[in-house]
Amino acid sequence: MKLKEIQNGSLYYNKQRKRVERVISNNISNSRVLTEYHKRSEKTVQLKHLRKATDDEVNKYLNGKRGFFGRLSELFCL
After folding, report:
1. Strand partners of residue 21
2. Phi and psi based region of residue 9 (left: phi greater than 0; alpha: psi -120 to 50; beta: remaining)
3. How many C-beta atoms surround the C-beta of residue 54 within 10 A?
4. What span, in angstroms and rounded, lies between the C-alpha atoms of 14 and 25?
5. CA neighbours within 13 Å on the CB side: how many for 66?
6. What is the DSSP letter of 3?
7. Cα–Cα dist 37/47, whole Å
8. CA 67 – CA 46 distance, rounded (Å)
9. How far from chain centre, in Å, is Cα 39?
10. Integer angstrom CA distances of residue 18 from 12, 14, 75
11. Distance of alpha carbon 55 from its chain centroid, rounded?
């Protein structure tokens, strides 16, 4: 994957960590981007460890993000 193909805010599968992560900055260097996992942990990742996430992986990521407090905040519009 090339840097110009990476879009901020998009979900990519990190082959090294074996999970889907969101790219939050693609201007770290020519070979690294900054990712986050459910807005908790930010890490730089080499491009060679990323691939586009499949639809199934995206759905699992989005459903996992909505834990107990996520559903609670939706109920009470927080």
Report:
1. 12
2. left
3. 12
4. 15
5. 10
6. G
7. 16
8. 29
9. 9
10. 11, 6, 32
11. 13
**Six token digits for residue 40:** 């908790």
Q: Can you give the pTM of this predicted structure?
A: 0.78
Q: CA-to-CA distance for 65 and 16, rounded, in angstroms?
A: 21
pLDDT in tens, 60-70: 988 876 555 55
Q: Is 50 exposed, middle or buried (0-12, 13-18, 19+ CB in 10 A)?
A: buried
Distance (Å, whole) CA 50 – CA 2: 10
List, for residues 5-62, the tens digit of each pLDDT value: 999 999 999 999 999 999 999 888 889 999 988 888 889 999 999 999 999 999 998 8
Task: Name residues whose C-beta falls within 8 Å of residue 59's C-beta, 6 or more positions apart in sequence.
Answer: none
Residues 6+ apart with CB under 8 A from 54: 13
